[in-house]
Design brief:
Elements lengths: L14 E5 L5 E5 L9 H6 L9 H18 L3 E8 L2 H28 L4 E6 L2 E7 L3 H16 L2 E3 L2 E3 L3 E7 L6 H17 L4 E4 L9 H22 L6 E5 L6 E8 L3 E2 L1
Parallel strand pairs: 8-9
Antiparallel strand pairs: 1-2, 3-5, 3-8, 4-5, 6-7, 10-11, 11-12
Helix pairs in contact: 3-4
């Protein structure tokens, strides 16, 4: 959820001036954000675009995977990430970045026209959940979305021509919802690693995930293994003798562990 100005929201007709690069100033009309009609909406709807938020996306994907499995119909996930969005935020500020996200949200909604469930995963990342959609149709829609992003976008007095990295994953038999989303995310990341402005489909070969996420999961796995070992008595300390290299004189002992190194 975007951070609102600390001095409170301005009046509907008030103009907000933000400093941009080279001391120029861009003026943005204030527009009220999406209003949630219930407490449930607050938990599942993104206030900036009116799309599903991360929580709503996960819950909806869970239902769609169940439906896809029961009906034996394809389900596609398309993950879209804007290229160099950080530069937009740095140039135009938070409200300028929000303006870009809002405009693209309107374009995305018009483009899919009821063919998909739309979600904003935070920042500049969007997910499109496509029931009854096979790989061929998903790639066609991904190209449409890429063209939609590339349409000129006017912010203040400047015209932007953004691009996007797009990943596609098709639900596999027996696959759970989180794995499906993860494959789409990894495919998007692979597209970004190619330099952006490209589309990657997740196939049978695993695609490396984001480095930060991968390292975090490895650390969590080690931590969980340690907890399990402590609870079950699976940790024991072993010593090995150390001798002088020449006279083979006994000098002491030290512990050795493959994971944590020598002590």
């Amino acid at each position: 959820m975007p951070v609102q100005p600390s001095l409170g929201a301005p009046h509907r007709n008030q103009q907000i001036a933000l400093p941009a690069a080279q001391d120029s100033r861009l003026v943005y009309p204030y527009r009220p954000r999406h209003q949630c009609s219930s407490h449930q909406d607050m938990n599942s709807i993104d206030s900036l675009t009116g799309f599903l938020n991360r929580f709503g996306c996960i819950q909806t994907t869970l239902k769609l995977v169940a439906n896809s499995t029961a009906d034996k119909k394809p389900l596609a996930v398309i993950w879209v990430d804007l290229d160099r969005f950080k530069q937009i935020n740095e140039s135009f500020g938070q409200l300028g970045g929000d303006e870009v996200i809002e405009n693209l949200g309107v374009r995305f909604r018009n483009r899919v026209s009821g063919r998909a469930e739309l979600a904003r995963m935070g920042g500049d990342e969007f997910v499109f959940l496509m029931p009854n959609c096979d790989s061929e149709l998903a790639q066609q829609l991904a190209k449409e979305l890429a063209s939609t992003v590339e349409e000129p976008l006017t912010i203040g007095s400047l015209t932007l021509r953004p691009t996007a990295s797009i990943g596609i994953a098709i639900h596999e038999p027996g696959e759970d919802s989180l794995t499906l989303l993860d494959r789409a995310d990894r495919a998007m990341f692979a597209a970004k690693n190619k330099g952006g402005n490209s589309i990657v489909c997740s196939g049978k070969e695993p695609i490396p995930g984001r480095l930060g996420i991968t390292l975090a999961r490895e650390e969590l796995s080690i931590e969980n293994s340690l907890h399990t070992a402590l609870e079950t008595g699976g940790i024991s300390l072993h010593y090995q003798p150390t001798n002088h290299s020449c006279g083979r004189e006994y000098r002491g002992r030290r512990s050795a562990d493959a994971m944590f190194g020598r002590r």
